[in-house]
Amino acid sequence: MTHSALTSRPRVLVTGAGGPAGSSLLTQLDARRIPVLGVDMAPRPRTDGARILPCPPATAPDFVSALAAICEEYSIDLIIPTVDEELSILAPLRSALLHRARIAVSPTAAVAIAADKWLTHRVADSLGLAVPRSLEGPALTEEGAYWLGFPYVVRPRVARGGRGVRLETTFPPTVPLRDTEMVSAFLPGTEYCAQLYLPLPASGHTATVVVLEKTSLAS
């Protein structure tokens, strides 16, 4: 097996290499001349020639064994997962290396909290951070609905981004609430997302801030 001549650099494996986060990370690591390999359940050719190997999805029973085999074959030093579903599976393995590769993932408890919007809300609230008024879905009463205000937001506790999010304007809600959902006060107005892009070292360029206007639930 032929590897990069940059033996002093770590060999990095990026999962979800076909997605936005994984693809961007491959580009950044390659620009820094760090030997990098991508894996994805549906590999697609890249214009820069970066190699992406097939790997089962996190839900497959052979996901960990397939990842470990790739790490061994390509002498991977560091795994950087970029797929949400992989985090809860890889977090318990962060101290038990796959082959000899370390895994860039938080401890299991932290991953579990970050994956659950209700648990995240509770932790943020306990730390004094500003959070919207919220309740677990099954705990919503008519009094609770008026405390939240109308309309109120219903969202899955575990889901990516805005998937499954809806507005309810009445009590009881038009769709019965499930124990996998939470409800929160609706914050009206336009939502903005600020993104900071840092230049590569010695590029001579300054940092760029881009502010994106996001679609509101009310629209």
Topology of this protein?
Blueprint: E1 12-14, H1 20-31, E2 36-40, E3 52-54, H2 63-73, E4 78-80, H3 84-90, E5 102-103, H4 108-115, H5 117-126, E6 134-136, H6 142-148, E7 152-156, E8 166-168, E9 181-185, E10 191-197, E11 208-214
Parallel strand pairs: 1-2, 1-4, 2-3, 4-5
Antiparallel strand pairs: 6-9, 7-8, 7-9, 10-11
Helix pairs in contact: 4-5
Protein name: ATP-grasp domain-containing protein
Domain ATP-grasp: 121-167
Keywords: ATP-binding, Nucleotide-binding
In short:
The chain has 219 residues and is α/β, with parallel strands linked by helices.
Give an overview of the whole structure:
The protein is an alpha/beta fold and 219 residues long. Helix content is 25%, strand content 21%. It contains six helices and eleven strands. The protein has helices at residues 20-31, 63-73, 84-90, 108-115, 117-126, 142-148, and strands spanning 12-14, 36-40, 52-54, 78-80, 102-103, 134-136, 152-156, 166-168, 181-185, 191-197, 208-214. A five-stranded parallel β-sheet has the order 3-2-1-4-5, with helices on one face. Strands 6-9-7-8 form a four-stranded antiparallel β-sheet, sandwiched between helices. It has a two-stranded antiparallel ribbon with strand order 10-11. Strand 4, helix 3 and strand 5 form a beta-alpha-beta unit. The chain is globular. The chain starts with 11 loop residues before the first strand and ends in a 5-residue tail after the last strand. The relative contact order is 0.10. Pfam families: PylC-like_N. Residues 121-167 form the ATP-grasp domain.
